[in-house]
# Entry
Amino acid sequence: MTTATPTVTGSVQSNISDEVALRVEDLKVYYETPRGTVKAVDGLTFSLRQGERFALVGESGSGKSTLAMALMRLTRPPGHIAGGKAILHGTDLIGLSEEEMRKIRLSQMALVPQGAMNSLNPVMRVGNQIADGILDHLPEGAQKPSKDEMRDRVRDLLDRVGLQPMVARLFPHELSGGMKQRVAMAIGISLNPSVIIADEPTSALDVIVQRQIMQTLGRLQEGLNAAVILVGHDMGLVAQFADTVGVMYAGKLVEVAPVRTMFKNPLHAYPRLLIDSIPTMDEKKKMVGIPGMQPSLLNLPPGDAFAPRSPLQFSAEDARVEPKLVEVEPGHWVALSRPSVEDFDKYAHLVDYR
Ligand SMILES: Nc1ncnc2c1ncn2[C@@H]1O[C@H](COP(=O)(O)OP(=O)(O)OP(=O)(O)O)[C@@H](O)[C@H]1O
Ligand SMILES: [Mg+2]
# Structure
C-alpha cells in the first residue's frame, strides 16, 4: 500500500514546481457541540506544490470552509484543531503562536473567505480598507509607507484585480457583487502571498461575472506563481481553472487527481455522480441527481460515510470498513473500500483487506 501524500504529476500546467508549498497531514478539525462532536475535517492529507491550482469540491457541509479557516489558524470555538499538521514551506502552522501566525497571514498565505464580498466594512472607503490590510501586516520594524506610496500600492492592487483607480474612493455599497469580490481579492493578495485560499469566490455572482472572477484569480496566481486552493462546489467551474481536483465528502478526501483524470476517469462513486450531474449543452442528458442525503457529521458511524448513498452493491459488513486513500496511479488518489469504487477487486490488493 502507498502511504505517501497525494501530490500531482502530469498536470496540465507547466509552471508547477517540485517544491511543496503546503503539506497537510492528517489534519482534524472538530466542533464540540451540546449534541456531540462534529468531525468536520477528519484526517485530511494532501500536498500543494508552488504554482499549483488545487480545487477542493464537495457538497455543502463537507468541511471545505472548516479546512480553509483551520489552515489560516482562524478556527474559533466550539471548533478546534484536533490533530495533524499544516506545513507551509517547512513550518508547521499548527504549532505557531498567534503572533507568529498573524505575520504569516496575508504575507505568506492569504484567505479570501467565503462571503468575503459581504464582509467589507460598509462605512469605510475601499482604498482605506486595502491600505489598512497592508498596514496591519507590515513586517516588524518596516517603515510605514508614505501617503503617496500607499496610494500607488492601492492603485496597483486595484489594477491587478481589474478595477479602476477611482474605485478606491467608493464605499462597498456603491460596488456590484463582482467588484466587491475583486476588492476582497485585492486585500488577499496585497502582500504577495505564496499560497492563496479562495473560498467560493464566485458564489452569488452571475455566470459571466463568475468566469471573469476566475480569470482574474488565474492571472493573479500566475503573476505571483502562487499555489491556490480554490474551494467550490461547481465541478464545471473549477474544471477550467484547476490543475488538480480534490473531492471531499463528510470531512474526508475521497479522490484527488489531475483535472483531466478526474473528469475522464473518476474512480470513486461520489465524484462520478458529481461529474455526471453536470449539465451539458450538446447532449440532452437526463438530469442525474445524487441519491440520499449527506450524512450528519455528528457521531458519524465508523466505516465508509458514502456507503448509504453508494449505487454499488456491497454488504453491511463492507460498509463498516474504513476506506483508505491510496495512490492508484501517479497523482491519482482514491479512498478505497468496496462501497466506494466499482471493480473494487481490481484495487483490493492496494489495501490490506478484501
Ligand atoms: N461553529 C460551528 N459549530 C458547529 N458545527 C459547525 C460550525 N461550523 C461548521 N460546522 C459544521 O461543520 C461541518 C462543515 O462545515 P463547513 O462550513 O466547513 O462546510 P462547507 O463544505 O464549507 O459547506 P458550504 O459548501 O455550505 O460552504 C458542517 O456539518 C457544519 O454544520
Ligand atoms: Mg463553506
